Amino acid sequence: MTLPQDKQRTSLFGTPSARERRVLTDALRTETVGGMVLLAAAVLALLWANTPLSASYETVRDYHFGISALGLDLSVEHWASDGILTIFFFIAGIELKRELVVGELRRPAAAALPVVAALCGMAVPALFYVAVNGAGGGAMDGWAVPMATDIAFALGVLAVIGTNLPSGIRAFLLTLAIADDLGAILVIAVFFTSTLNWLAFGGALAGLLLFWALHHRFRVRGWYVYVPLGLVIWALMYNSGVHATIAGVAMGMLLRVTLRTGPEGEAGAGESVSPGERIEHLVRPLSAGFAVPVFALFAAGVSVSGEALGETFRQPEALGVIVGLFAGKFVGVFGGTYLAARFTRARLNPSLSWSDVAGVALLAGIGFTVSLLVTELAFTDAETTEHVKAAVLIGSLLSAVCACVLLKLRDAKYRRMWEDEIRDEDLDGIADIDQPEDLVRRPTEVKRRAREAARLRIESEHRAKADGD
């Protein structure tokens, strides 16, 4: 019996729409390559900072340049984290706008599960951090460090090892990571804003208003207008005391992600893709292949000697981050998803298992990019910062390894399921799964019949040739 519309339960990890699958595929393709470049940049940073060349690494990282009169005389490290990383947050802003307007987050029933999972995936790691540091007498400043999920790394890992996993799992992870990013952006804006310069902040808001008017009212499309305007907005936001990457998020969310209605009332007449989607397609490779790796190069260069690692596990702030990323993220995402499915109308897709949810929950513990950024904002002591950065790398690595093991097992199972669906052991052109059980022959019988058929075919060809001669 079909349930009424208001009684039907939303399927968790259901198959996304065709448009969502296309956007997801494009994101996965770019993030997979970007994740590999990001990993290479992180490895290069670790090697550079732990070899006899470590002095040159610190020299390059701490080198200052810029325009002092505009308050922009920054080190290379700060240009990477406050400047170049804004491109990453610009893409995050477009993704948020798309998901909220035309994606899964526009429907409360579909958005509930990833949003609940993301909220629990942020709250529980923070609680784990607070518990560890409360017991160990550590500083509470880093409670936000284990809250974030790195989209590039998580999707990159999933794309590499999960070739046979259902697309719904990928869509859920992307939506979860986007909702998680929104939470991280709000945390950065609210809790890590220094003394506010209202004049600069007002100028940034005026610039954003002009950005919106040019884009929506006057329909200006030239990059030569928006790039200079974006730089001005970024500089004003930086000088206001609000973290400069928020400017990137705001500009991304101001882009239109819907198709403009044509003269006859038909959506999309004369417009195949929205400006937001077009710009995201152009800028995403720059974000994944340049902005995030450059940030990682100058943020991940921490000491990994035996003594330094030992101190990392003894320091409560660093230990809280490791526990928060590895255990807190898993408990938060998996527990939040289970509770949402248990006490709401949402249900797990019958073709999936809670082991799939566990794999996604482990992937959410990869908190590389934003976690490193929050570490720099939360701690001022250089030694503590180094240890917490090492903890971010350790927690992310533990989560990635465990997720790879579990999801690889699940991927093998789905591959076997696919092979079972197309198997035709009786060679009649009909998949065995579509036939009654008593018509499926035993493998030995199938092989015997195949050999007999091949023998008869060869004998027939020989007779035909002999008759022709």
Number of DSSP helices? 17
Residues in helices, as a percent range: 55-70%
Number of strand segments: 4
CATH topology of the largest domain: Na+/H+ antiporter like fold
Tell me the name of the CATH class of the largest domain.
Mainly Alpha
What would the principal axes of the Cα set say about the shape? globular
Distance between the termini: 69 Å
Mean pLDDT: 82
List the helices and strands and how they pair.
Layout: E1 11-12, H1 18-49, H2 54-61, E2 64-67, E3 72-75, H3 76-84, H4 86-101, H5 108-136, H6 151-161, H7 167-191, H8 198-217, H9 223-240, H10 245-254, H11 275-299, H12 306-314, H13 316-343, E4 347-348, H14 354-363, H15 368-378, H16 382-422, H17 443-468
Parallel strand pairs: 1-4
Antiparallel strand pairs: 2-3
Helix pairs in contact: 1-2, 1-6, 1-11, 3-11, 4-7, 4-10, 4-11, 5-7, 5-13, 6-7, 6-16, 8-9, 8-10, 9-10, 12-16, 13-14, 13-16, 14-16, 15-16
